[in-house]
Write the structure tokens for this entry.
Amino acid sequence: MLFNLSTAQAQSPENGEAAEGQTEIKPLLVGQKVPEEFWTREHLFYVDGDTVRKTLEEYRGKLLIVDFWATWCAICWYQMKDNHHLSDRYNGKIDFLLVSPQSTKDNFEKISTTHHTRLRNLGLKSLSSVFADNYISNLFLFKGYPAYMWISPSGHFIAHTGRQSVTDGHIEGVLSSYKSGNE
């Protein structure tokens, strides 16, 4: 797996600095534990044509692969289908969290259109994605889509990979290392 060891500071898209009155979000380095706020903060989700505000508590304690995507990214669409099958195969041991950062300018309508046309044509009937996000996307540095951030069952950021690394072999390797007690 490829690791991202960048140390740059997160900036708001408007002026290049943290907005007044807001805490600056420092990007995580591989090996660091995600902050408690990652799990407890409410996020706006697109869920099968509806909007829902919820936390990420349901993902805690599993291998979580954060999947940054955009509606205009065809590779993202095809990878979602493969990731859905991987998630089913590991029956609750892993989860994929789709995140459409605010920087993509993907709003509810664009995500809904992509869901009802492109994704359904690929066989994906259901879609749940964080959208209009700045918090999660500022925690992890990445360029290009799709981008995958792996978070261990213990809540540590363990890898930043591309689509080629989201495989049975890598997932099995990570899960087996946690079964044997390795962190």
